[in-house]
Amino acid sequence: MTPGFCITLSKADKPKGRTCVVLLTDSYGRPMRDLRISITDRCNFRCFYCKSAVFSNAKERAEILTFEEILRLARLFVGLGITKIRVTGGEPMVRRDVDRLIAELSRLPGLEDLALTTNGFNLAEKAVLLRANGLNRVTVSLDSLDGARFAAITKSNDFEKVLAGIHEAKRIGLEPVKVNCVLVRGFNEDEVVPFAEFSRQHDIAVRFIEFMPLDEQGQWNREKVVTGAEVLARLRERYEMVPVGKVNDHATSADYAFADAPGRIGLIMPVSVPFCGQCSRVRLTADGKIRTCLFSVIEHDVRTVLRSGADDSAVIEFITETVQKKERGHRINEPDFEPPPRSMSFIGG
Ligand code: SF4
Description:
Bound molecules: iron/sulfur cluster
Mean pLDDT: 91
Number of helices: 9
Distance between the termini: 32 Å
Order of helices and strands: EEEHEHEHEHHEHEHEEEEEEHH
Strand content: 15-25%
Oligomer: single chain
CATH class: Alpha Beta
């Protein structure tokens, strides 16, 4: 019997179109609910902490999963209890027909939440179509509210377009619209208050993410990490911050509200306050590898299984056995920590 078990749900608990749910669990008993699908390893930005300045080592097209393969895997994962899918990249919006993929994914029976992480360069144009095709919400990566610094970080001049995309997503209800900001000491830690003001002014959730050892150039070190505790202290110098806790056990962000204004601040602290104990995430890379942890140094090639002509039960067997090998957590704080062989843009966050 493949690992995992089937539970018959009460009427209220039955997600759309399901009679029972096979829970995809790892060897620590953690149920997997969130699948992050990287649909491309390409990106039109060159964020210094993510991808090198040269368009070096994107995979050949034949190595990248087709939409049909992505949809088949998504259908099988959802059948195994995944209720939330996040589409990522590289930059997912550089892949043609992403809106068609969103439409197909949103029709999967049992899927409760479909989200997208983007750098926002063309979100203003695409938001209405993505919403109409079933996208629920969007997260935009933005590490500076200063146009010149944005350009220095991303090597792109799309600052105003990204802001327009955020506001358009909010206007049409791709809610909650979230902005993810990676803080790097010596680079943008002075933007905590400007982002807080942005959140208050536009009632948009801003999440500050600790710098992780996933950069292509290997420049990460602990001194460059601006911890969540530091961010909170900086905010409390100016605002009354009210803890609102986590939206659910698996959430990565510790959230705070402003006592006197709309807006929301999230602290994502993988380095200083790891949240692996409740991890419910599994990832699929653009070239068809299952990653059981963001920091996995081992990957599991499901593309070869698919392209070998395997039937659904064989693919399910591969998925469930792979999840059984999921790491207990990352080892960033361990002396023997080894960064993964892929940088963030090849994983998709
Ligand atoms: S580091 Fe790995 S185990 Fe920890 S929360 Fe992230 S994906 Fe889960």
